[in-house]
Structures are given as C-alpha cells and as structure tokens.
C-alpha cells in the first residue's frame, strides 16, 4: 500500500454521503487521476460506502477507503487509509479508535493494505476540526513542528495537511514541506481553479481534490492535468 501511494500525484476524494451522478462519476474515474479515496466526516455508513464502491469498481482506477468510523468499514477496497489526528488532545482521534478497531477485528486486518496518515487539520471551521477538537489555528512554526514530529520522531510514511473545503496558506504548506525528506506530503482543501491546483502541487507530493467534484465536475477533471504538469519542489 505504501509503495502504491508513493506513485500518487493527484487523487480525488469522494464522499459517500453526497450525491454524484453516473456521468460525473464516469468523468472522475476516467480522468487520469492516480486513485480515488472514499471517505468523509459525517453520514458515512456501510451501505452508502458499499454503494459508492460498487459504482467505482466499474472502472479501472484504484480505489481506497479512508476510515472514519468502524461501522462503515467495507471489504473490497484496494487499500485502507487510517488517519491519526496529531493536533488534538483527544486521544480517541490519535490512537484510541485505532486500538478499538484492532481489538475488534484482530487478525482479520489486512495490514499489507493499510496506510497510516498523520493528519494536521488547519481549518478551524471544518467539520472534521470541530469533531476532533483539533487545535487548527496554528502558526507557521507550529505547523512545521508537526512535520518534524512525523518525519524524525514517528517516522510515519505520510503527513496529510487538511484544510477541508478551504484553500490553504501556501507559506504554511511550504514550511511543512521544507521539513520533510522521507515522509510524503498530502494536501487537501479548497482547490477550485488552475492557480490553486498548481500552487499546492509545487509543495505537496499528492494533491487531494474533493469539493469541486460536486460543484463543477469539468473543472475537477482539469485539476488532474494542472497538478501533474506542475514541477514538484525538492524536499528538505
């Protein structure tokens, strides 16, 4: 799973709790994106996750599930992303829910298909920020500190910078990027046009595009080209 994720430059994130027409889904799946992540913050159930997976499986694009609730874990995905929110004091979102899942599912967990994401949420108004009680109003220096934590102390494979519906601060994302050498940087949040896509594609190894899928699918498809034609800045 880690090897596969290292090849992702652009991915779409689709929410099982949001409506998407068959035509729009076809355009997304055939856009040339590297993968599709299925996941969301609220209203996520086994049924709507399974239904979306079935629709996506008609196409050849890799599809992974980002798990936000144990009740909605669906077999059949190509892989599973496990978020651990770093900028919260609530242990449930750092490791508590993860331990509960391990106790419940034990030896049935396909560890070779699992990828841990170290999440840093930087939009205080986002649903996920309120849910996890994240300390999202971080300074540039504080945000970069989490990059050091993930890269040098935890040695995790991915740091996910989440702005969740709001376009992020380039200086802050750049500061995080410059702390990383081995850890892969994911960015998600508010990309709706070419300038935004190319801005974050300079700093993030993997750019995650979500909300624009539901407001302008044609522009969403264009983000694939915008991201992939942008030169990624060197780490460190």
TrEMBL record:
GO terms classed as biological process: glycerophospholipid biosynthetic process
CDD domains named in the record: PcrB_like
HAMAP family reported for this sequence: GGGP_HepGP_synthase (MF_00112)
UniProt name for this protein: Heptaprenylglyceryl phosphate synthase
Catalysed reactions, semicolon-separated: sn-glycerol 1-phosphate + all-trans-heptaprenyl diphosphate = 3-heptaprenyl-sn-glycero-1-phosphate + diphosphate
Family membership noted in the UniProt record: Belongs to the GGGP/HepGP synthase family. Group I subfamily.
EC number(s) reported in the record: 2.5.1.n9
Subunit-structure text: Homodimer.
Domain of life: Bacteria
InterPro entries, per database record: GGGP/HepGP_synthase_I (IPR039074), GGGP/HepGP_synthase_sf (IPR038597), GGGP_HepGP_synthase (IPR008205)
Function: Prenyltransferase that catalyzes in vivo the transfer of the heptaprenyl moiety of heptaprenyl pyrophosphate (HepPP; 35 carbon atoms) to the C3 hydroxyl of sn-glycerol-1-phosphate (G1P), producing heptaprenylglyceryl phosphate (HepGP). This reaction is an ether-bond-formation step in the biosynthesis of archaea-type G1P-based membrane lipids found in Bacillales.
PANTHER family: HEPTAPRENYLGLYCERYL PHOSPHATE SYNTHASE (PTHR40029:SF2), PTHR40029
Record Pfam families: PcrB
Cofactor: Mg(2+)
Pathway assigned in UniProt: Membrane lipid metabolism; glycerophospholipid metabolism
Keywords, in A-Z order: Lipid biosynthesis, Lipid metabolism, Magnesium, Metal-binding, Phospholipid biosynthesis, Phospholipid metabolism, Transferase
Binding site for sn-glycerol 1-phosphate: 13, 160-165, 190, 210-211
GO molecular function (one): heptaprenylglyceryl phosphate synthase activity
Binding-site positions, Mg(2+): 15, 41
């Amino acid at each position: 799973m880690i090897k596969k994720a290292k090849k992702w430059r652009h991915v779409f994130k689709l929410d099982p709790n949001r409506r998407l027409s068959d035509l729009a889904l076809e355009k997304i799946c055939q856009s040339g994106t590297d993968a599709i992540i299925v996941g969301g913050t609220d209203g996520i159930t086994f049924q709507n996750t399974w239904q979306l997976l079935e629709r996506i499986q008609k196409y050849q694009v890799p599809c992974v599930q980002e798990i936000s609730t144990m009740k909605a874990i669906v077999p059949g995905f190509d892989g599973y992303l496990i978020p651990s929110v770093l900028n919260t004091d609530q242990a449930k979102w750092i490791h508590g829910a993860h331990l509960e899942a391990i106790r419940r599912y034990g030896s049935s967990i396909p560890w070779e298909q699992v990828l841990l994401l170290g999440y840093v949420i930087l939009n205080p108004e986002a649903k996920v920020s309120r849910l996890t009680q994240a300390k999202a109003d971080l300074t540039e220096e504080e945000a970069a500190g989490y990059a050091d934590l993930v890269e040098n102390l935890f040695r995790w494979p991915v740091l996910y910078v989440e702005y969740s519906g709001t376009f992020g601060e380039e200086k802050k994302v750049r500061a995080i990027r410059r702390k990383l050498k081995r850890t892969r940087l994911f960015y998600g949040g508010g990309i709706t046009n070419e300038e935004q896509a190319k801005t974050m594609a300079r700093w993030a190894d993997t750019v995650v595009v979500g909300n624009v899928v539901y407001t302008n699918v044609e522009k969403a498809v264009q983000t694939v080209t915008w991201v992939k034609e942008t030169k990624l800045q060197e780490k460190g």
